[in-house]
Amino acid sequence: MITLHVDGAAWRAHQRRVVAATPGLVPVAKGGGYGFGLATLAAEAQALGVGTLAVGTASEVRYVRGAFAGDVVVLQPWRPDDRDAVALLGDERIVHTVSRVSDLAAVAGSGERPRVLLEVLTSMRRFGIAADTFADVAPHLASVELAGWTLHLPMPAATRGNAAEAERLARAALAVRQAPVWLSHVTSADYDRLRASLFAETRKRVGTELWLGGAAKRQVTATVLDVHPVGRGERIGYWQRAMPADGHVVVVSGGTAHGIALEAPTAAATMRQRLVSVATGSMEAVGLALSPFTVQGAKRWFVEPPHMQASMLFLPGKVLPPHVGDEVPVEVRLTTATVDRIVVE
Ligand SMILES: *Cc1c(COP(=O)(O)O)cnc(C)c1O
């Protein structure tokens, strides 16, 4: 079992601080739900009292709508061949993002009068309607409920600020039709500035900072599933690798299904490093890679690449092995991890 432990009081205090500091905040819950899962984040958003929650794709709506009672925005643009997105056109709780004029025409022609956000093409160049074609949307606006214009900007760190681009594009969009302006990835200072200068309602979508920011203690642990003594030269695992020394193999929960990947072997890349590794008896010399699991105070080496739900680690001779059932720390990136259990403490 891979378990995410979180200090609930500190986590929720952080969430409330972000909400209080960000007028118009729309929490984002998508993919693996930033390690917490979509249903958990939907319940947190409900408790925060926000009126709108954003999910990544139309297929994710079903995981949040039970726990969250407000409106749900789908961030990935609506497409005519996405069956989930098409099926939601008649759903009054859903706000669809539309990024092409042809899709706007299709949505407008559905007869459902869907709620839509029109995405504006920014320097991200991912999705959106180019500013020089904004006028083409006008004929379709009578058949939809325009919830706003939406701008997804590059990371501020990559651009030294997005405010100028956001303001220019938002003004061009607002000239076509007045509507709320939805933003992503603008700094707090730029957001405040835009709120003051745009003369439009603003919304800001936030995921990472809301769920993973702050100082709330978070720890991920793996259960020790088995321990076996191994001898030097003994071949073990799927790949029957020879063990570099006497010791133990520790079988822990956590594998590729949890997003636990083999770390690229760092050392031993060059011949000189390889000789150093051999001389110092380090594990790169025998082709092992460092794992993200900590057992008895140190990161341990994978015996072989992680399996789907378990991993095999090598514990050298002198180290006392853990007990079956112990929980050991594992370092994972919560944006790519899938945990089995969340314990809010
Ligand atoms: C994922 C996403 C966000 C949230 O991004 P974070 O960096 O996690 O805050 C905001 N806007 C859009 C359009 C997204 O796809």
Can you walk me through this structure?
The chain has helices at residues 8-21, 38-48, 61-64, 83-87, 101-108, 156-159, 163-176, 188-197, 208-212, 271-280, and strands at 2-6, 25-27, 52-55, 71-74, 94-98, 115-120, 145-152, 181-184, 202-206, 218-230, 235-236, 241-242, 247-253, 289-295, 298-302, 310-316, 327-329, 341-344. It is of the alpha/beta class. Helix 5 links the parallel strand 5 and strand 6 (115-120). The strands form three sheets. Strands 1, 10, 13, 14, 15, 16, 17 and 18 form an eight-stranded mixed sheet that branches. It folds into two domains: 8-212, Alanine racemase (TIM Barrel); 218-344, Lyase, Ornithine Decarboxylase, Chain A, domain 1 (Beta Barrel). Bound molecules: pyridoxal-5'-phosphate. Residues 28, 30, 75, 152, 184, 205-209 line the site of pyridoxal-5'-phosphate.
How are the SSEs ordered, and which strands pair?
Layout lengths: L1 E5 L1 H14 L3 E3 L10 H11 L3 E4 L5 H4 L6 E4 L8 H5 L6 E5 L2 H8 L6 E6 L24 E8 L3 H4 L3 H14 L4 E4 L3 H10 L4 E5 L1 H5 L5 E13 L4 E2 L4 E2 L4 E7 L17 H10 L8 E7 L2 E5 L7 E7 L10 E3 L11 E4 L1
Parallel strand pairs: 1-18, 2-9, 3-4, 4-5, 5-6, 6-7, 7-8, 8-9
Antiparallel strand pairs: 1-10, 10-13, 10-17, 11-12, 13-16, 14-15, 15-16
